[in-house]
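Hi support team,

I've been running sequence recovery on a batch of backbones for a student project. Most finish fine, but this one hangs at about 90% for roughly twenty minutes before it completes. I'm not sure whether the input is malformed or the queue is just slow. I've pasted the C-alpha coordinates below so you can try to reproduce it. Let me know if you need the job ID as well.

Thanks,
M.K.
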Protein backbone atom coordinates (compact mmCIF):
# COMPACT_ATOMS: atom_id res chain seq x y z
CA UNK A 1 0.00 0.00 0.00
CA UNK A 2 2.81 2.44 0.74
CA UNK A 3 6.48 3.20 0.30
CA UNK A 4 8.92 5.04 2.48
CA UNK A 5 10.89 8.21 1.96
CA UNK A 6 11.74 11.35 3.90
CA UNK A 7 9.07 13.97 4.24
CA UNK A 8 9.17 16.70 1.67
CA UNK A 9 11.42 19.41 3.03
CA UNK A 10 10.43 22.15 0.61
CA UNK A 11 8.10 25.02 1.39
CA UNK A 12 4.49 24.13 0.76
CA UNK A 13 2.16 26.97 -0.11
CA UNK A 14 -1.07 27.07 -2.01
CA UNK A 15 -4.79 27.64 -1.90
CA UNK A 16 -6.72 25.60 0.66
CA UNK A 17 -9.21 23.51 -1.33
CA UNK A 18 -10.60 21.42 1.52
CA UNK A 19 -10.45 21.24 5.29
CA UNK A 20 -11.11 18.58 7.88
CA UNK A 21 -10.36 18.93 11.60
CA UNK A 22 -6.61 19.16 12.03
CA UNK A 23 -5.77 19.18 8.32
CA UNK A 24 -5.95 21.35 5.24
CA UNK A 25 -5.74 20.08 1.67
CA UNK A 26 -3.71 22.60 -0.30
CA UNK A 27 -3.11 23.03 -4.02
CA UNK A 28 0.64 23.12 -3.55
CA UNK A 29 2.47 25.48 -5.89
CA UNK A 30 5.77 23.73 -5.22
CA UNK A 31 4.63 20.13 -5.71
CA UNK A 32 2.14 20.59 -8.53
CA UNK A 33 -0.61 18.52 -6.90
CA UNK A 34 -2.94 18.66 -3.90
CA UNK A 35 -1.72 17.32 -0.59
CA UNK A 36 -2.44 17.37 3.11
CA UNK A 37 -0.94 19.98 5.40
CA UNK A 38 0.65 19.31 7.80
CA UNK A 39 2.20 16.05 6.67
CA UNK A 40 2.36 13.15 9.15
CA UNK A 41 5.66 12.01 10.59
CA UNK A 42 7.54 9.02 9.20
CA UNK A 43 6.92 7.19 12.49
CA UNK A 44 3.16 7.68 12.16
CA UNK A 45 3.17 6.33 8.61
CA UNK A 46 5.34 3.36 9.52
CA UNK A 47 3.01 2.38 12.36
CA UNK A 48 -0.07 2.70 10.16
CA UNK A 49 1.15 0.57 7.27
CA UNK A 50 3.38 -1.94 9.05
CA UNK A 51 1.16 -2.55 12.06
CA UNK A 52 -2.36 -1.17 11.74
CA UNK A 53 -3.68 -1.18 8.19
CA UNK A 54 -4.54 -4.84 7.56
CA UNK A 55 -4.92 -5.68 11.24
CA UNK A 56 -7.38 -2.99 12.34
CA UNK A 57 -8.05 -0.51 9.52
CA UNK A 58 -8.86 -3.05 6.78
CA UNK A 59 -9.14 -6.45 8.50
CA UNK A 60 -11.45 -7.89 5.81
CA UNK A 61 -9.48 -6.58 2.83
CA UNK A 62 -7.59 -9.76 1.99
CA UNK A 63 -10.65 -12.01 2.19
CA UNK A 64 -12.70 -9.57 0.12
CA UNK A 65 -9.98 -9.23 -2.51
CA UNK A 66 -9.86 -13.00 -2.97
CA UNK A 67 -13.52 -12.88 -4.02
CA UNK A 68 -12.60 -10.41 -6.76
CA UNK A 69 -10.17 -12.74 -8.53
CA UNK A 70 -12.05 -12.91 -11.85
CA UNK A 71 -12.42 -9.13 -11.89
CA UNK A 72 -8.72 -8.66 -11.08
CA UNK A 73 -7.95 -10.77 -14.15
CA UNK A 74 -9.67 -8.06 -16.21
CA UNK A 75 -8.65 -4.92 -14.29
CA UNK A 76 -4.98 -5.85 -14.03
CA UNK A 77 -4.96 -7.79 -17.26
CA UNK A 78 -5.64 -4.59 -19.20
CA UNK A 79 -2.56 -2.98 -17.64
CA UNK A 80 -0.40 -5.99 -18.37
CA UNK A 81 -1.70 -6.12 -21.95
CA UNK A 82 -0.61 -2.53 -22.50
CA UNK A 83 2.87 -3.15 -21.11
CA UNK A 84 3.18 -6.25 -23.29
CA UNK A 85 2.10 -4.22 -26.31
CA UNK A 86 4.86 -1.64 -25.81
CA UNK A 87 7.57 -4.08 -24.73
CA UNK A 88 6.75 -6.76 -27.27
CA UNK A 89 7.02 -9.50 -24.66
CA UNK A 90 6.12 -10.47 -21.09
CA UNK A 91 9.25 -9.77 -19.07
CA UNK A 92 10.16 -9.03 -15.49
CA UNK A 93 7.68 -6.97 -13.46
CA UNK A 94 7.87 -5.35 -10.02
CA UNK A 95 4.70 -4.44 -8.12
CA UNK A 96 5.46 -1.74 -5.54
CA UNK A 97 3.02 -1.88 -2.63
CA UNK A 98 1.75 -5.24 -3.81
CA UNK A 99 -0.61 -5.88 -0.88
CA UNK A 100 -1.74 -9.52 -0.71
CA UNK A 101 -0.51 -10.19 -4.25
CA UNK A 102 -3.58 -9.67 -6.45
CA UNK A 103 -1.73 -8.03 -9.34
CA UNK A 104 1.20 -10.43 -9.07
CA UNK A 105 -1.11 -13.43 -9.38
CA UNK A 106 -2.52 -12.08 -12.64
CA UNK A 107 0.97 -11.23 -13.92
CA UNK A 108 2.24 -14.71 -13.15
CA UNK A 109 -0.71 -16.30 -14.96
CA UNK A 110 0.13 -14.20 -18.02
CA UNK A 111 3.73 -15.39 -18.09
CA UNK A 112 5.51 -12.52 -16.36
CA UNK A 113 8.47 -13.02 -14.01
CA UNK A 114 6.80 -11.28 -11.08
CA UNK A 115 8.25 -9.64 -7.96
CA UNK A 116 6.70 -7.49 -5.25
CA UNK A 117 7.41 -5.44 -2.14
CA UNK A 118 4.88 -4.69 0.61
CA UNK A 119 5.35 -3.04 4.05
CA UNK A 120 2.57 -4.94 5.84
CA UNK A 121 3.81 -8.30 7.08
CA UNK A 122 0.21 -9.57 7.11
CA UNK A 123 -0.31 -8.81 3.41
CA UNK A 124 3.22 -9.81 2.39
CA UNK A 125 2.97 -13.14 4.21
CA UNK A 126 -0.31 -13.85 2.44
CA UNK A 127 1.32 -13.15 -0.92
CA UNK A 128 4.26 -15.39 -0.03
CA UNK A 129 1.85 -18.17 0.92
CA UNK A 130 0.65 -18.06 -2.70
CA UNK A 131 4.19 -18.77 -3.87
CA UNK A 132 4.85 -15.18 -4.93
CA UNK A 133 8.29 -13.58 -4.71
CA UNK A 134 7.55 -10.73 -2.30
CA UNK A 135 9.81 -8.74 -0.01
CA UNK A 136 8.49 -7.30 3.26
CA UNK A 137 9.40 -3.65 3.72
CA UNK A 138 9.15 -0.14 2.36
CA UNK A 139 10.21 0.94 -1.10
CA UNK A 140 12.87 2.06 -1.83
CA UNK A 141 14.66 1.91 1.53
CA UNK A 142 14.09 -1.80 2.24
CA UNK A 143 14.16 -3.06 -1.33
CA UNK A 144 16.74 -5.75 -2.11
CA UNK A 145 18.11 -4.93 -5.54
CA UNK A 146 19.42 -8.44 -6.27
CA UNK A 147 16.60 -8.94 -8.77
CA UNK A 148 18.21 -6.28 -10.97
CA UNK A 149 16.27 -4.06 -13.34
CA UNK A 150 12.71 -4.50 -14.60
CA UNK A 151 10.81 -4.33 -17.87
CA UNK A 152 7.63 -3.19 -16.14
CA UNK A 153 6.98 -1.52 -12.79
CA UNK A 154 3.46 -1.24 -11.42
CA UNK A 155 2.11 0.90 -8.56
CA UNK A 156 -1.58 0.62 -7.76
CA UNK A 157 -2.95 3.15 -5.27
CA UNK A 158 0.43 3.87 -3.70
CA UNK A 159 1.36 7.48 -4.42
CA UNK A 160 -1.57 8.93 -2.52
CA UNK A 161 -0.10 7.43 0.67
CA UNK A 162 3.52 8.59 0.49
CA UNK A 163 5.07 11.81 1.78
CA UNK A 164 7.20 12.31 -1.34
CA UNK A 165 5.67 10.91 -4.55
CA UNK A 166 8.41 12.39 -6.72
CA UNK A 167 11.12 10.53 -4.80
CA UNK A 168 9.23 7.26 -5.21
CA UNK A 169 8.91 7.78 -8.97
CA UNK A 170 12.61 8.64 -9.20
CA UNK A 171 13.55 5.43 -7.37
CA UNK A 172 11.25 3.35 -9.57
CA UNK A 173 12.68 4.91 -12.73
CA UNK A 174 16.18 3.89 -11.66
CA UNK A 175 15.03 0.26 -11.68
CA UNK A 176 13.47 0.45 -15.15
CA UNK A 177 15.34 -0.93 -18.11
CA UNK A 178 15.81 1.34 -21.14
CA UNK A 179 12.36 1.64 -22.76
CA UNK A 180 10.84 -0.03 -19.69
CA UNK A 181 7.23 0.75 -18.80
CA UNK A 182 5.79 2.22 -15.59
CA UNK A 183 2.06 2.14 -14.78
CA UNK A 184 0.69 4.15 -11.87
CA UNK A 185 -2.91 4.26 -10.69
CA UNK A 186 -4.19 6.70 -8.08
CA UNK A 187 -7.66 7.90 -7.07
CA UNK A 188 -8.92 10.55 -9.49
CA UNK A 189 -10.04 13.01 -6.84
CA UNK A 190 -11.71 16.42 -7.01
CA UNK A 191 -12.83 15.59 -10.55
CA UNK A 192 -15.89 17.43 -11.94
CA UNK A 193 -17.96 14.23 -11.77
CA UNK A 194 -16.94 13.57 -8.19
CA UNK A 195 -17.82 17.11 -7.14
CA UNK A 196 -21.20 16.83 -8.88
CA UNK A 197 -21.89 13.52 -7.14
CA UNK A 198 -21.12 15.05 -3.75
CA UNK A 199 -23.72 17.74 -4.41
CA UNK A 200 -26.25 15.16 -5.61
CA UNK A 201 -26.23 13.30 -2.30
CA UNK A 202 -25.45 16.35 -0.14
CA UNK A 203 -22.36 14.57 1.15
CA UNK A 204 -19.13 15.86 2.56
CA UNK A 205 -15.97 15.18 0.56
CA UNK A 206 -15.72 11.54 1.64
CA UNK A 207 -12.57 11.00 -0.40
CA UNK A 208 -10.61 13.41 1.82
CA UNK A 209 -9.07 11.04 4.37
CA UNK A 210 -5.81 12.66 5.52
CA UNK A 211 -4.91 9.84 7.89
CA UNK A 212 -4.54 7.61 4.82
CA UNK A 213 -4.39 9.77 1.71
CA UNK A 214 -1.73 12.45 1.88
CA UNK A 215 -1.88 13.37 -1.82
CA UNK A 216 -4.75 14.00 -4.25
CA UNK A 217 -4.13 13.73 -7.98
CA UNK A 218 -5.82 14.41 -11.28
CA UNK A 219 -4.94 12.83 -14.62
CA UNK A 220 -3.03 15.97 -15.57
CA UNK A 221 -1.10 16.40 -12.33
CA UNK A 222 0.04 12.77 -12.36
CA UNK A 223 1.22 13.05 -15.95
CA UNK A 224 3.06 16.26 -15.09
CA UNK A 225 5.21 14.70 -12.37
CA UNK A 226 5.97 11.71 -14.61
CA UNK A 227 7.11 13.97 -17.43
CA UNK A 228 9.29 15.89 -14.96
CA UNK A 229 11.25 12.65 -14.49
CA UNK A 230 11.82 12.32 -18.26
CA UNK A 231 9.21 9.61 -18.56
CA UNK A 232 7.12 9.65 -21.73
CA UNK A 233 3.39 9.29 -21.01
CA UNK A 234 2.03 6.77 -23.51
CA UNK A 235 -1.45 5.95 -22.20
CA UNK A 236 -4.18 7.47 -20.05
CA UNK A 237 -7.11 5.37 -18.89
CA UNK A 238 -9.38 4.82 -15.91
CA UNK A 239 -11.88 2.37 -14.46
CA UNK A 240 -15.60 2.50 -13.72
CA UNK A 241 -16.81 5.94 -12.52
CA UNK A 242 -18.37 4.95 -9.21
CA UNK A 243 -19.79 8.46 -8.89
CA UNK A 244 -22.47 7.48 -11.39
CA UNK A 245 -24.16 5.40 -8.70
CA UNK A 246 -24.39 8.46 -6.46
CA UNK A 247 -25.94 10.47 -9.28
CA UNK A 248 -28.52 7.67 -9.62
CA UNK A 249 -29.39 7.91 -5.94
CA UNK A 250 -27.34 4.97 -4.68
CA UNK A 251 -25.53 6.66 -1.80
CA UNK A 252 -22.75 4.24 -0.95
CA UNK A 253 -21.03 6.95 1.11
CA UNK A 254 -23.78 6.64 3.73
CA UNK A 255 -24.40 2.88 3.61
CA UNK A 256 -21.62 0.26 3.25
CA UNK A 257 -24.19 -2.32 2.11
CA UNK A 258 -25.04 -0.14 -0.89
CA UNK A 259 -21.31 0.19 -1.54
CA UNK A 260 -20.96 -3.58 -1.78
CA UNK A 261 -23.90 -3.76 -4.18
CA UNK A 262 -22.40 -1.04 -6.38
CA UNK A 263 -19.07 -2.83 -6.41
CA UNK A 264 -20.75 -6.01 -7.63
CA UNK A 265 -22.47 -4.06 -10.41
CA UNK A 266 -19.27 -2.38 -11.58
CA UNK A 267 -17.57 -5.79 -11.68
CA UNK A 268 -20.44 -7.21 -13.73
CA UNK A 269 -20.15 -4.31 -16.18
CA UNK A 270 -16.45 -4.98 -16.74
CA UNK A 271 -16.90 -8.73 -16.99
CA UNK A 272 -19.77 -8.55 -19.49
CA UNK A 273 -18.18 -5.96 -21.76
CA UNK A 274 -14.80 -7.66 -21.59
CA UNK A 275 -16.38 -10.91 -22.72
CA UNK A 276 -18.38 -9.29 -25.51
CA UNK A 277 -15.84 -6.77 -26.83
CA UNK A 278 -12.57 -6.27 -24.94
CA UNK A 279 -11.41 -3.53 -27.32
CA UNK A 280 -14.61 -1.59 -26.66
CA UNK A 281 -13.96 -1.82 -22.91
CA UNK A 282 -10.49 -0.36 -23.44
CA UNK A 283 -11.84 2.44 -25.65
CA UNK A 284 -14.62 3.24 -23.19
CA UNK A 285 -12.22 3.81 -20.32
CA UNK A 286 -9.70 5.71 -22.43
CA UNK A 287 -12.42 8.08 -23.61
CA UNK A 288 -13.59 8.66 -20.04
CA UNK A 289 -10.02 9.40 -18.99
CA UNK A 290 -9.76 11.85 -21.87
CA UNK A 291 -12.41 14.01 -20.21
CA UNK A 292 -10.92 13.48 -16.72
CA UNK A 293 -13.64 11.12 -15.53
CA UNK A 294 -13.41 7.69 -13.93
CA UNK A 295 -12.60 6.59 -10.38
CA UNK A 296 -8.88 6.06 -10.96
CA UNK A 297 -6.27 7.98 -12.89
CA UNK A 298 -4.22 5.25 -14.58
CA UNK A 299 -1.18 6.58 -16.42
CA UNK A 300 1.40 4.49 -18.24
CA UNK A 301 4.77 5.99 -19.09
CA UNK A 302 7.89 4.71 -20.83
CA UNK A 303 11.49 5.28 -19.84
CA UNK A 304 13.34 7.87 -21.90
CA UNK A 305 13.10 11.56 -22.72
CA UNK A 306 10.12 12.94 -24.58
Amino acid sequence: MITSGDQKQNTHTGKVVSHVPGHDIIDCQNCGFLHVSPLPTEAELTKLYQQDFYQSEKPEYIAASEQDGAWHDIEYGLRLDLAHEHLGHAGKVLDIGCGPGNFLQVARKQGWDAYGIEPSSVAADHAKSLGLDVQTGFFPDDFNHEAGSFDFIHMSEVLEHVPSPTEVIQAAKQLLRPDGVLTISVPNDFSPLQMAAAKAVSADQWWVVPDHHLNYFTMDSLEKILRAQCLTCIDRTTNFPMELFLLMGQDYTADPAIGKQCHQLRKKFDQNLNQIDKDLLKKFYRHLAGINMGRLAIITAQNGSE
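--
Follow-up from support: It reproduced on our side and the slowdown came from queue contention, not your input. The CA atoms of residues 17 and 138 lie 30 Å apart. No action needed from you.
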